[in-house]
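New to this. Please check this protein:
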Amino acid sequence: MARANRLDSRFDTAIFAACIFLAIVAHGLPASMREPIAETMRRTIVAPLVGLQHDAELSRAAWLSHETNTRIQDSVSLRAMRVVQLESENDRLRRVLGLGGKLRWGFVPAEALHSGAVGDEYTLTLSAGANAGVRPFSPVVAPEGLVGMVQTVDPRMSIAIIWTHPDFRVSARAADRSAFGIVQAHEGSGADRYLLELRGVPVRNEIKKGTLIVSSGLGGVYPEGIPIGTVIDTLRSDGYARKYLLRPAVLPPDVLSVMILQPQRVQAGVEPVWAATVAAADSMVRAAND
């Protein structure tokens, strides 16, 4: 290996010396003789090298252009994603403002904070507390329907359990008042744990798929008429009562801005607030079964 390296080094030195010698000789030749030799070298040796350099420059320019275009496309895609996100947030804000306009009074607006910690999948931290008029056991609602209930209250914040909580219970009824029962979290795994169950429905009362389930107002905690979920399946009956699987009206990722109902608003009722939603759902069920 060392001998081969020495031979290569000597060969390179010899070529370098020959080039210097030829350059000196060419420089001493008359112009009439130098020009034909130079033209021949340009055509045979220099031209391919110039072509390679030209191709290299084109390749470099193409690579730089591709990189620039990629950056522009990434920037456009990122801006498009931001626009979609902003449109979604604006639409959500309009819905919340619309809910506030329908309620008119007796509510406290709050932001729902998701921490992602273990156990927090059952609760929400709300940005309003006792100083804003929030009280324990106050219903928490969103434009789509029921979110949960305030559990603990601090001066400037509060903690609410949502419908995924194992202790969540709400007296409910079908939108057409054909059946009553109790809604609670579904004891499933994976995505099924974000579903609800309607239990305690008498066997004689059968609820059709697609029926909207709303709060019944019994118990005094939740006022009547708040959407809870939609019937998507029938679960196994225990022989005395029916059980139904519900798709919740409010999904966890959508819980960003909420309204906390104050006691006087609960007593006054909120049924007209979601009357259009209830009527539309009832019409869809009727149309599907005609």
In short: Residues 212 and 281 are 6 Å apart (CA to CA).
